[in-house]
């Protein structure tokens, strides 16, 4: 059985764990926050991870545990932060909710099926690739439609046609209303940058680049693994952990060095089924109990709740690194040969 990621175990132990040993891992090369437009990133050296089949769960099931208080969690071993987009960085989840309702409310009524409810979004759609969301909702109502093709017009009564109709509604709403990022999420991004951490966006939506641009966040993320990347590279979508693992690879990190930040059920499942150091659940409506049962290590209402723990980890890391630096007075004194000390 593969051993659990060190930071995950530290999170369960709380602030009394081996923070010093974990924090030393933060002394790493800091990549540029400027996204290279039109440039495809080549993955840096990837540390070996436990092998598994694409799209399958890892072989170490997550132990049931109570979530750690965000102020007590040990973040010393976290080098990479893998963010979902909608509902985590931007309040676009509500835009998606409205777009899905505009699609399915009239469609289900015309089918004589059970009416569409807001709860259906969280139960069957949230966090999944668009066409998977269509399939999941239709299955919940016992409705079968032809698959069709990605090129289907939004008017087509196919899985792809309905998905394209939803995308049309989403883009129209985004253009009309715009989007601002959550201030608390921006505050955490700033804190991660100060600490020298690496960040990536992992989103099932193919609209992720447009949303990041609209929210003024595009320049912060050098790595974006979205629905378009997943389709192009054949990456299995959430709730499999593959998209997050790909983002870690592009950052040049092992999944065990990364935290997953999610608000959707399928996203938390993806993080919990992978070998990631930490899974942070953001409660935007799923509920704390559900996020806990899905496997979140830490649950927050806003992401700035993690900043004190991140700053504490940085302070500990600085102490550890100073102690190991032969140029510091403490280390230099310890390095004096015994003969010179006697003289």
Explained architecture:
One of its GO terms (molecular function) is beta-phosphoglucomutase activity. Keywords: Carbohydrate metabolism, Hydrolase, Isomerase, Magnesium, Metal-binding, Phosphoprotein. InterPro entries: B-phosphoglucomutase_hydrolase, Beta-PGM-like, HAD-like_sf, HAD-SF_hydro_IA, HAD_sf, PGP-like_dom2. Its EC number is 5.4.2.6. This protein is α/β, with parallel strands linked by helices. The chain has two domains: 6-28 and 68-90 and 179-320, HAD superfamily/HAD-like (Rossmann fold), CATH 3.40.50; 93-177, DNA polymerase, domain 1. It has 15 helices and six strands. The protein has helices at residues 6-13, 19-23, 93-111, 118-125, 130-140, 159-177, 183-195, 208-215, 227-233, 242-251, 265-272, 288-294, 307-324, 329-334, 338-342; strands spanning 80-83, 198-202, 223-225, 258-262, 278-282, 298-300. The chain has a six-stranded parallel β-sheet with strand order 3-2-1-4-5-6, with helices on both faces. Strand 4, helix 11 and strand 5 form a beta-alpha-beta unit. The protein starts with 5 loop residues before the first helix and ends with a helix.
Strand order of the largest sheet: 3-2-1-4-5-6
- CATH fold annotation of the largest domain: Rossmann fold
According to DSSP, the number of beta strands is 6
CATH superfamily membership of the largest domain, which one?
HAD superfamily/HAD-like
> Given this structure, which CATH class of the largest domain is correct?
Alpha Beta
How is the biggest beta sheet arranged? 6 strands, parallel
Which segments are poorly predicted (pLDDT under 50) over 5 or more consecutive residues?
1-61, 330-343
Number of individual domains: 2
What general form does the structure show? elongated
Please state roughly what percent of the residues sit in beta strands, choosing from under 5%, 5-15%, 15-25%, 25-35%, 35-45% or over 45%.
5-15%
| SS element count, helices | 15
Cα radius of gyration in angstroms: 22 Å
End-to-end Cα distance = 55 Å
GO molecular function: beta-phosphoglucomutase activity; hydrolase activity; metal ion binding
Region (Disordered): 1-71, 320-343
Biased composition (Low complexity): 1-13, 322-336
Organism: Agromyces luteolus
């Amino acid at each position: 059985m593969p051993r659990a990621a060190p930071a995950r175990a530290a999170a369960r132990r709380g602030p009394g764990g081996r923070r010093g040993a974990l924090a030393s891992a933060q002394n790493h090369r800091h990549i540029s926050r400027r996204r290279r437009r039109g440039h495809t990133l080549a993955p840096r050296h990837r540390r070996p991870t436990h092998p598994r089949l694409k799209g399958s769960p890892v072989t170490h099931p997550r132990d049931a545990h109570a979530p750690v208080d965000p102020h007590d969690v040990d973040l010393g071993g976290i080098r990479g932060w893998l963010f979902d987009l909608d509902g985590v960085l931007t309040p676009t989840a509500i835009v998606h909710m409205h777009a899905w309702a505009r699609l399915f409310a009239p469609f289900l009524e015309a089918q004589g099926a059970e009416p569409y409810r807001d709860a259906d979004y969280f139960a069957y759609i949230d966090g999944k690739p668009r066409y998977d969301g269509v399939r999941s909702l239709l299955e919940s109502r016992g409705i079968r439609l032809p698959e069709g093709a990605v090129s289907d017009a939004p008017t087509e009564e196919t899985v792809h046609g309905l998905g394209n109709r939803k995308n049309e509604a989403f883009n129209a709403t985004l253009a009309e209303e715009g989007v601002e990022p959550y201030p608390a999420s921006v505050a955490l991004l700033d804190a991660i940058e100060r600490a020298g951490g690496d960040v990536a966006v992992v989103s099932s939506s193919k609209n992720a680049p447009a949303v990041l641009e609209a929210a003024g966040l595009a320049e912060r993320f050098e790595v974006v693994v979205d629905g378009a990347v997943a389709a192009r590279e054949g990456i299995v979508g959430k709730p499999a952990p593959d998209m997050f693992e790909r983002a870690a690879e592009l950052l040049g990190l092992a999944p065990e060095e990364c935290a997953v930040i999610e608000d959707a059920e399928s996203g938390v499942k993806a993080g919990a089924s992978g070998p990631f150091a930490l899974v942070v659940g953001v409660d935007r409506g799923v509920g704390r109990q559900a996020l806990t049962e899905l496997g979140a290590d830490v649950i927050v209402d806003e992401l700035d709740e993690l900043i004190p723990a991140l700053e504490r980890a940085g302070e500990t890391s600085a102490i550890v690194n100073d102690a190991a630096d032969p140029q510091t007075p403490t280390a230099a004194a310890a390095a004096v040969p015994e003969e010179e000390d006697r003289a």
